[in-house]
Amino acid sequence: MRYSGVRFLLLCCAASLLWISTSCTRPNPIEPPGPTSTAHQDGSHIDAKGNRLIPLREAAHVLGLRMEDGDQVVRIGYTDVIYELYPGRPEALASGQLVTLPQAPVQIKGTPFVTIESLSRLLQAPVQWNSERQTIDIGAIRNAGQMPPTDGISGHRLHMTGAGVDTQDLIQFAKSFLGVPYQFGAGPYEESKKFDCSSFTRHVFAQYGIKLPRLARDQAKQGSAVTRDNLKRGDL
Q1: Cβ density class 217-236: b for 16+ within 10 Å, e for less
Q2: Distance, CA of 43 to CA of 135 (rounded, Å)
Q3: Lowest mean pLDDT, pick from 32-41, 163-172, 214-223
Q4: Are 2 and 10 spatial neighbours (Cβ–Cβ below 8 Å)?
Q5: For this UniProt entry, which residues form the secretion signal (predicted)?
Protein backbone atom coordinates (compact mmCIF):
# COMPACT_ATOMS: atom_id res chain seq x y z
CA MET A 1 0.00 0.00 0.00
CA ARG A 2 2.88 2.31 0.71
CA TYR A 3 4.21 1.91 -2.83
CA SER A 4 0.75 2.39 -4.32
CA GLY A 5 0.44 5.69 -2.46
CA VAL A 6 3.82 6.84 -3.74
CA ARG A 7 2.94 5.75 -7.29
CA PHE A 8 -0.37 7.65 -7.09
CA LEU A 9 1.44 10.79 -5.87
CA LEU A 10 3.97 10.59 -8.71
CA LEU A 11 1.17 10.20 -11.27
CA CYS A 12 -0.58 13.28 -9.87
CA CYS A 13 2.65 15.33 -10.08
CA ALA A 14 3.27 14.18 -13.66
CA ALA A 15 -0.28 15.11 -14.66
CA SER A 16 0.10 18.56 -13.09
CA LEU A 17 3.37 19.21 -14.94
CA LEU A 18 1.78 18.11 -18.22
CA TRP A 19 -1.16 20.51 -17.70
CA ILE A 20 1.18 23.42 -16.89
CA SER A 21 3.33 22.69 -19.96
CA THR A 22 0.27 22.50 -22.22
CA SER A 23 -1.15 25.76 -20.82
CA CYS A 24 2.11 27.64 -21.39
CA THR A 25 2.28 26.59 -25.03
CA ARG A 26 -1.28 27.65 -25.88
CA PRO A 27 -1.52 30.62 -28.29
CA ASN A 28 -2.39 33.98 -26.78
CA PRO A 29 -6.16 34.40 -27.15
CA ILE A 30 -5.88 38.23 -27.22
CA GLU A 31 -6.22 39.52 -30.77
CA PRO A 32 -3.67 42.17 -31.87
CA PRO A 33 -5.14 45.60 -32.61
CA GLY A 34 -6.07 46.33 -36.19
CA PRO A 35 -4.00 48.73 -38.33
CA THR A 36 -4.57 52.44 -37.76
CA SER A 37 -3.79 53.31 -41.37
CA THR A 38 -3.72 51.76 -44.83
CA ALA A 39 -0.52 51.96 -46.87
CA HIS A 40 -0.54 52.95 -50.55
CA GLN A 41 2.06 52.25 -53.21
CA ASP A 42 2.92 55.94 -53.45
CA GLY A 43 4.16 55.92 -49.85
CA SER A 44 1.16 57.74 -48.41
CA HIS A 45 -1.30 56.28 -45.91
CA ILE A 46 -5.01 56.66 -45.20
CA ASP A 47 -5.85 56.84 -41.51
CA ALA A 48 -8.94 55.43 -39.81
CA LYS A 49 -10.84 58.69 -40.42
CA GLY A 50 -10.10 58.74 -44.15
CA ASN A 51 -7.39 61.43 -43.98
CA ARG A 52 -4.46 61.01 -46.36
CA LEU A 53 -1.14 61.00 -44.53
CA ILE A 54 1.92 62.35 -46.34
CA PRO A 55 5.48 61.37 -45.33
CA LEU A 56 7.07 64.57 -44.05
CA ARG A 57 10.43 63.71 -45.60
CA GLU A 58 8.85 63.67 -49.06
CA ALA A 59 7.21 67.04 -48.44
CA ALA A 60 10.56 68.48 -47.31
CA HIS A 61 12.22 67.04 -50.42
CA VAL A 62 9.64 68.69 -52.68
CA LEU A 63 10.43 72.04 -51.03
CA GLY A 64 14.20 71.55 -51.29
CA LEU A 65 14.53 71.45 -47.51
CA ARG A 66 16.38 69.11 -45.20
CA MET A 67 14.76 67.19 -42.37
CA GLU A 68 15.96 65.56 -39.19
CA ASP A 69 13.58 63.53 -37.09
CA GLY A 70 13.57 61.77 -33.76
CA ASP A 71 11.00 60.18 -31.50
CA GLN A 72 9.90 63.51 -30.01
CA VAL A 73 10.65 66.23 -32.56
CA VAL A 74 10.92 66.66 -36.34
CA ARG A 75 12.97 69.61 -37.64
CA ILE A 76 12.69 70.92 -41.19
CA GLY A 77 14.60 73.82 -42.72
CA TYR A 78 17.24 75.08 -45.11
CA THR A 79 20.40 76.29 -43.39
CA ASP A 80 18.47 76.68 -40.13
CA VAL A 81 15.34 75.12 -38.68
CA ILE A 82 12.15 76.68 -40.05
CA TYR A 83 9.56 74.16 -38.86
CA GLU A 84 9.35 71.96 -35.79
CA LEU A 85 6.71 69.27 -35.34
CA TYR A 86 6.07 66.94 -32.43
CA PRO A 87 4.58 63.52 -33.27
CA GLY A 88 1.38 62.94 -31.32
CA ARG A 89 0.92 66.65 -30.55
CA PRO A 90 -0.96 69.27 -32.60
CA GLU A 91 1.38 72.08 -31.56
CA ALA A 92 4.10 73.02 -34.06
CA LEU A 93 6.50 75.89 -34.71
CA ALA A 94 6.79 77.77 -38.00
CA SER A 95 9.59 80.34 -38.09
CA GLY A 96 9.46 80.48 -34.30
CA GLN A 97 5.69 81.07 -34.18
CA LEU A 98 3.31 78.61 -32.51
CA VAL A 99 0.92 76.89 -34.92
CA THR A 100 -1.90 74.53 -33.94
CA LEU A 101 -2.38 71.80 -36.53
CA PRO A 102 -5.83 70.33 -37.30
CA GLN A 103 -4.40 66.81 -36.84
CA ALA A 104 -1.27 65.85 -34.94
CA PRO A 105 1.62 64.25 -36.87
CA VAL A 106 2.01 60.51 -36.38
CA GLN A 107 4.85 58.03 -36.53
CA ILE A 108 4.32 54.97 -38.73
CA LYS A 109 7.12 52.43 -38.47
CA GLY A 110 9.45 55.18 -37.31
CA THR A 111 8.55 57.55 -40.17
CA PRO A 112 6.73 60.84 -39.44
CA PHE A 113 3.53 61.49 -41.40
CA VAL A 114 1.16 64.46 -41.50
CA THR A 115 -2.24 65.08 -43.06
CA ILE A 116 -2.57 67.33 -46.09
CA GLU A 117 -4.68 69.75 -44.05
CA SER A 118 -2.05 69.99 -41.31
CA LEU A 119 0.77 70.41 -43.84
CA SER A 120 -1.15 73.28 -45.43
CA ARG A 121 -1.64 74.93 -42.02
CA LEU A 122 2.05 74.52 -41.18
CA LEU A 123 3.32 75.95 -44.47
CA GLN A 124 0.59 78.59 -44.74
CA ALA A 125 0.21 77.46 -48.33
CA PRO A 126 -2.33 75.52 -50.38
CA VAL A 127 -1.52 71.81 -50.49
CA GLN A 128 -3.37 69.39 -52.75
CA TRP A 129 -3.11 65.71 -53.55
CA ASN A 130 -2.64 64.96 -57.26
CA SER A 131 -4.32 61.59 -57.72
CA GLU A 132 -3.13 61.19 -61.33
CA ARG A 133 0.57 61.71 -60.60
CA GLN A 134 0.30 60.38 -57.03
CA THR A 135 2.15 63.44 -55.71
CA ILE A 136 1.46 66.51 -53.60
CA ASP A 137 1.23 69.99 -55.08
CA ILE A 138 2.34 72.85 -52.82
CA GLY A 139 1.47 76.43 -53.67
CA ALA A 140 3.32 79.63 -52.79
CA ILE A 141 4.46 79.62 -49.16
CA ARG A 142 3.69 82.66 -47.06
CA ASN A 143 6.68 84.25 -45.25
CA ALA A 144 9.16 82.02 -47.07
CA GLY A 145 12.15 84.14 -46.10
CA GLN A 146 14.32 81.14 -45.28
CA MET A 147 13.46 78.99 -48.26
CA PRO A 148 16.27 77.97 -50.64
CA PRO A 149 17.23 80.81 -53.00
CA THR A 150 16.23 80.30 -56.61
CA ASP A 151 19.32 81.95 -58.11
CA GLY A 152 21.83 81.23 -55.35
CA ILE A 153 22.66 84.95 -54.87
CA SER A 154 20.82 87.55 -52.85
CA GLY A 155 20.99 91.19 -53.86
CA HIS A 156 21.30 92.55 -50.34
CA ARG A 157 23.14 91.80 -47.11
CA LEU A 158 22.99 93.24 -43.61
CA HIS A 159 25.38 96.02 -42.75
CA MET A 160 26.25 95.53 -39.07
CA THR A 161 29.54 97.36 -38.77
CA GLY A 162 27.84 100.68 -38.11
CA ALA A 163 27.16 99.57 -34.54
CA GLY A 164 30.59 100.62 -33.30
CA VAL A 165 32.10 97.14 -33.48
CA ASP A 166 35.81 96.56 -34.10
CA THR A 167 35.41 94.64 -37.34
CA GLN A 168 38.83 93.01 -37.30
CA ASP A 169 38.36 91.87 -33.71
CA LEU A 170 34.94 90.44 -34.54
CA ILE A 171 36.33 88.50 -37.50
CA GLN A 172 39.19 87.06 -35.44
CA PHE A 173 36.74 86.00 -32.74
CA ALA A 174 34.55 84.32 -35.36
CA LYS A 175 37.56 82.50 -36.82
CA SER A 176 38.38 81.07 -33.41
CA PHE A 177 35.43 78.71 -33.90
CA LEU A 178 36.82 77.11 -37.05
CA GLY A 179 36.43 73.36 -36.65
CA VAL A 180 33.37 73.52 -34.41
CA PRO A 181 30.90 70.85 -35.66
CA TYR A 182 27.78 71.90 -37.53
CA GLN A 183 24.43 70.62 -36.30
CA PHE A 184 21.09 71.40 -37.90
CA GLY A 185 18.98 73.11 -35.23
CA ALA A 186 21.87 73.25 -32.76
CA GLY A 187 21.13 74.34 -29.22
CA PRO A 188 23.05 77.15 -27.47
CA TYR A 189 26.78 76.76 -28.03
CA GLU A 190 27.45 76.78 -24.29
CA GLU A 191 25.44 73.57 -24.02
CA SER A 192 25.81 71.81 -27.38
CA LYS A 193 29.32 72.95 -28.42
CA LYS A 194 27.92 73.00 -31.96
CA PHE A 195 26.55 75.60 -34.37
CA ASP A 196 24.13 75.99 -37.21
CA CYS A 197 24.25 79.11 -39.40
CA SER A 198 22.12 81.49 -37.35
CA SER A 199 23.25 80.26 -33.93
CA PHE A 200 26.86 80.96 -35.00
CA THR A 201 26.21 84.57 -36.04
CA ARG A 202 24.06 85.08 -32.96
CA HIS A 203 26.82 83.82 -30.65
CA VAL A 204 29.54 85.90 -32.32
CA PHE A 205 27.64 89.19 -32.39
CA ALA A 206 26.40 88.68 -28.82
CA GLN A 207 30.01 89.02 -27.66
CA TYR A 208 29.93 92.59 -28.97
CA GLY A 209 26.62 93.60 -27.44
CA ILE A 210 24.52 92.98 -30.54
CA LYS A 211 21.54 90.73 -29.83
CA LEU A 212 20.29 88.86 -32.88
CA PRO A 213 17.14 86.72 -33.12
CA ARG A 214 17.55 82.95 -33.27
CA LEU A 215 16.32 82.42 -36.85
CA ALA A 216 18.22 83.62 -39.92
CA ARG A 217 14.98 84.95 -41.37
CA ASP A 218 14.56 87.26 -38.39
CA GLN A 219 18.24 88.19 -38.33
CA ALA A 220 17.83 89.44 -41.89
CA LYS A 221 15.49 92.14 -40.57
CA GLN A 222 18.16 93.62 -38.29
CA GLY A 223 20.62 96.38 -39.13
CA SER A 224 20.38 98.20 -42.44
CA ALA A 225 20.34 96.70 -45.92
CA VAL A 226 23.19 97.51 -48.30
CA THR A 227 23.80 96.54 -51.90
CA ARG A 228 26.31 93.85 -52.71
CA ASP A 229 28.73 96.44 -54.11
CA ASN A 230 28.81 98.22 -50.72
CA LEU A 231 29.57 95.19 -48.56
CA LYS A 232 32.33 95.61 -45.98
CA ARG A 233 34.26 93.21 -43.80
CA GLY A 234 32.09 92.06 -40.92
CA ASP A 235 28.79 92.55 -42.72
CA LEU A 236 26.25 89.74 -42.72
Answers
A1: bebbeebeebeeeeeeebeb
A2: 10
A3: 32-41
A4: no
A5: 1-25
Strands (E), the chain: 37-39, 45-47, 52-55, 66-69, 74-77, 81-85, 91-94, 97-100, 106-108, 111-115, 127-130, 135-138, 156-159, 224-227
Lowest mean pLDDT among 23-27, 198-202, 205-209: 23-27
End-to-end CA distance of the chain: 103
The residue count of the chain comes to 236
Q: What is the CATH number of domain 37-138?
A: 3.30.457.10
For residues 129 and 55, is the Cβ–Cβ distance under 8 A? no
Give the residue among 143, 135, 164, 121 at the shortest CA–CA distance from 217. Answer: 143
Q: What pTM was computed for the model?
A: 0.61
Amino acid type, 86? Y
Strands, sheet with 45-47, edge to edge from the N-terminal-most edge strand: 37-39, 45-47, 52-55, 111-115, 106-108
Domain ranges of the chain: 37-138, 156-230
106 bridge partner residues: 113
What number does CATH give the domain 156-230? 3.90.1720.10
